[in-house]
Amino acid sequence: MSIQRATNRDGSTRYVVRWREEGRQRGRRFDRLADARAFEAEKRREQQLGAHAPKEPSAETLKEWLAHWFAIDGVRWEKNTRLDRAWVVDKWIAPYLGDVRLRDLGRARIIEWRAAMLADGASPYRTNKALGTLSAALGSAVDNERLPANPCVGIKRMPHQRSRPRALSSIQVELIRAELPLWRDRTLVSLMAYAGLRPEEALALRWRDVREHTLSIEATYTAGELKPRTKTRRARSVPIIESLRADLDAADGLRPAGLVRCS
Fold this sequence. Notes:
The chain is α+β, with helices and mostly antiparallel strands and 263 residues long. It has 9 helices and 7 strands, in the order βββααααααααββββα.
């Protein structure tokens, strides 16, 4: 490890700290000798402590890290999680912070970014969603020794009031069904309105799940994929009421072995 003095094109002096790390020669430039010496001392300390030394924040940009994060962690995510996070990154994170280096991404910068999102029309719910995605990415950066700590930790979420869903009356449900020309579409509405199925559960319902008095809810259809589990990862039974029974009975001669929605 050494400090070398060099001259810039404009005649000013710079100091270059050179050291070996993981079998490679590395270097970093400083304008002041005191900064170069401090950095050299810290690198010597890291070499003495080995793997337990605190890490210096990475100089790579957030955009570069996000691409790496998707490559190394994204393989474990559900497809809809990957799509959702990609949209949040493309819409609300990369355009604002993509060119910021990880070592410069502190708490103050993140709070400024959230304010910019709100000024550009993002709702408090959406800003919280974006902050959660950024926090997950920077948490992974900590795990991979790109950052010593996650600057998102401790930043409170924006308060927002959730609108309570209002159930449709049976008259409203029937008015909607009356506008649908296909049995398949009318039945999907009935499954959601009269059996309380989530859309992804209704789309995944198979004829073998339709019992005499109940529906067996065991799968979901999300992001173009049929998954053999529900959102809660627990199967459940739902009673079939008369309004729904009429729709299902109307398909007596049409029932294949596959999905109800394909009939």
